[in-house]
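Follow-up to my post from last week.
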Amino acid sequence: MNQSYNSVLLDNAIAELSKLPGIGHKTALRLALHLLRKDPEVAYALGNSVIEMRKGISYCPVCHNISESGVCSICSDNHRDHEVVCVVENIKDVITIERTHEHSGVYHVLGGLISPLDGISPSDLEIDSLVKRVEQDKISEVILALSPTMEGDTTNFYIYRKLSHLPVKVSVLARGISIGNELEYTDELTLGRSILNRTPFAK
Amino acid sequence: MNQSYNSVLLDNAIAELSKLPGIGHKTALRLALHLLRKDPEVAYALGNSVIEMRKGISYCPVCHNISESGVCSICSDNHRDHEVVCVVENIKDVITIERTHEHSGVYHVLGGLISPLDGISPSDLEIDSLVKRVEQDKISEVILALSPTMEGDTTNFYIYRKLSHLPVKVSVLARGISIGNELEYTDELTLGRSILNRTPFAK
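User reply:
Got it. Predicted complex:
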């Protein structure tokens, strides 16, 4: 803090707001002044919603998705196929996949990807709990739905090896050209892979 | 809200965060997930600082700067020159001018500038209270320290006319070339004005 606004309360709020990712001192000041201009209820609602969220949300002990009370709503849904587990990086990806309406199974949230450069090793992720889940529960397929990046591929391979001794089918998301994209602008690696993995023409 | 994260608490926090200026739904989600990953204390500190700020900060009844208890620290400072009032747009400008250490008087925060396009008329600003202050208190000079924009100039002129019947000196900030800027890149209007308003060479 190299500035003081003659108010410890304002200084505090700016300090806390600027701890958020992507929010610097100037933006924090702008947000604080915005809250001071608006009705007090706006600031109270914001403050309370953040506190209540952090208080009320925990993680599902089964799939590590967020949950407000023990086992999450997906894991406790009997209409879903509990034999098919989709492995994702984080809870945002759970939502992304849910919106496709193409996965009727359950999830396993890793909490990140293996990335030695960022100091994230397999032990930092929920990989052991995934292996234990496959060992103990009746699981027929594990779908690795990680990003097609170096970190994602490393994690895919690590999990594949960890599961190789178990009688479970391990699959990854299909890679190929994006629907709606011009072929001209598709990168060569993806295009090459999509030729190798070509599928029978479906009328 | 076209997305739901299976948690009313998370949805709420995202909704409140995305009410902040410049923060959309995606950024709000990122901020919320950041708070969920960090220690609970981080979220509690943020929430409480915002609530406490809004609860504790009010406006100085004299100059309309922020204040934690009645008359602000500048207005209640006897070492300052209460005869010289510097008129600024908002509380950020109070800090900016304080940091120059060139103004030893007091302030009057308008709360904005006259801007018919944005629907801000003189009655929305603290102009009447400024006129009343000049009428009632012993004020020798009013320094108009508003931005050199169309809105600032409009407001300057409006205040100047409102004060014209009173025995008070009204001044505006000097306009000219910025210290440290190349002459080549100074705009013609500013350069022209700085020639007209040239000052005696000070050795």
